[in-house]
Design a protein that fits this description.
78% of the residues lie in helices and 0% in strands. It is an all-alpha fold.
Length: 220
C-alpha cells in the first residue's frame, strides 16, 4: 500500500505520454516559425526583385511577360493546349478562316516560344500554302511577308538557330521571293517598298492594309 506522500506526488506529476506530446508540439511550433521566416526571407530577397523586373512596362519586359506568364500558370498543360491549338489551326485552314488561323499561330508561338519547328512550319504554311489560296498577287505578297515576319519573330526567342536561318534564306528569299512563279511581281514590289520606306514616317499617311506590307519590309 502506497503512503500518503507517494499518492500526492503521483497526483501532481503528468503522465509520460502527455509530456511527450507537449514536447512534440513545441518542436513543431519552432520548426514552423523557422520555415515561415525562411520563406519570408526568400520572398523578400529573391522573388520580389524578379517580380519587379518581370512586370516593368517596357517593350522587352512585356514580351518576356507574355512568354513567362503562360509557362507559370499552365505548367504541364501547355503541351495539351498546344496540341489542341495545332488541330484547330488545321481546321481553320481547311475552312479558310484566315484571321482565326493567324490568331492560333500567335497563341502556339506564345505557348511554345523556344521550339524552332513552330516558326519554320507556320512560316512555310503562310508563305506557300496560304498564299496559294489567293489570286490577287498583292495578297499573295502579303502572306509571304507574314511568313517571313514569323521567322524573324522566332529569331528573337531562338537566336542563331540554323533551321530558322535556312528557312529565311532558302525558302523565303531565294525560292519564294526570288524564284517562284510570281517572282517578277515580288521583286518589283520589294524594290518599290524599299523606295517607299520614308512614307511610314509621314504622319499624314494612315496606317492600314495599304501599308502593312511596307511595314513588314521596314522591319526586315
Amino acid at each position: 500500500m502506497a503512503s500518503g506522500g507517494e499518492i500526492k506526488q503521483a497526483e501532481g506529476s503528468e503522465p509520460r505520454g502527455i509530456s511527450r506530446a507537449r514536447r512534440d508540439q513545441f518542436v513543431a511550433i519552432i520548426v514552423g516559425v523557422v520555415l515561415m521566416s525562411a520563406a519570408q526571407l526568400i520572398e523578400t530577397l529573391v522573388l520580389a526583385p524578379k517580380r519587379v523586373a518581370l512586370v516593368q512596362e517596357d517593350e522587352s519586359s512585356m514580351q518576356s511577360l507574355a512568354v513567362t506568364f503562360p509557362r507559370l500558370t499552365l505548367g504541364g498543360f501547355r503541351g495539351i493546349l498546344s496540341t489542341a491549338l495545332w488541330l484547330q489551326a488545321e481546321d481553320d485552314k481547311q475552312a479558310r478562316r484566315w484571321y482565326e488561323l493567324e490568331t492560333k499561330y500567335d497563341m502556339i508561338a506564345t505557348l511554345q516560344p523556344y521550339f524552332a519547328s513552330v516558326y519554320v512550319f507556320h512560316a512555310w504554311n503562310q508563305a506557300y500554302n496560304l498564299s496559294a489560296q489567293w489570286h490577287d498577287v498583292d495578297t499573295k505578297y502579303k502572306w509571304v511577308l507574314d511568313g517571313l515576319a514569323y521567322l524573324y519573330r522566332g529569331e528573337q526567342y531562338v537566336p542563331r538557330n540554323p533551321d530558322i536561318a535556312l528557312s529565311e534564306a532558302q525558302e523565303m528569299y531565294y525560292l519564294k521571293l526570288g524564284g517562284s512563279f510570281e517572282r517578277e511581281f515580288y521583286r518589283a514590289h520589294w524594290r518599290a517598298d524599299l523606295a517607299r520606306l520614308h512614307e511610314l514616317k509621314d504622319p499624314k499617311l494612315d496606317a492600314g492594309s495599304a501599308t502593312d506590307a511596307l511595314a513588314h519590309v521596314y522591319q526586315f
